[in-house]
Amino acid sequence: MGLLKKYLKPDIYLDNITFLDTTKLKEKGIKILLVDLDNTLSAHGSINPDEFAIKQIERVEKSGIKCIIFSNAMGNRAKEFSEIIGIDC
Predict the structure, then answer these.
(1) Residue 81 contacts by C-beta under 8 Å, 6 or more apart in sequence?
(2) What separation, in Å, do the N-terminal and C-terminal C-alpha atoms of the chain show?
(3) To the nearest whole percent, how much of the chain has pLDDT over 90?
């Protein structure tokens, strides 16, 4: 089994990022959240963050958890998206 498959498995599966309970994450000692871009923060193929994406990142980071975009988006799309929203990628 490759390293990515062995160590980078999601611990939580949610239907929507709005269901993410940041209080529970903080109680478990979570300090960083890896967030996918497509169909999590934005519609598949979206170039710019919309109000929803900005609001969700602000909500999580306000709780003290750092967000990082972790995506297989092609080219520089994820990097550009993250720069606009002000988080790492």
Answers:
(1) 37, 41, 42, 46, 47, 48, 49, 69, 73, 89
(2) 25
(3) 58
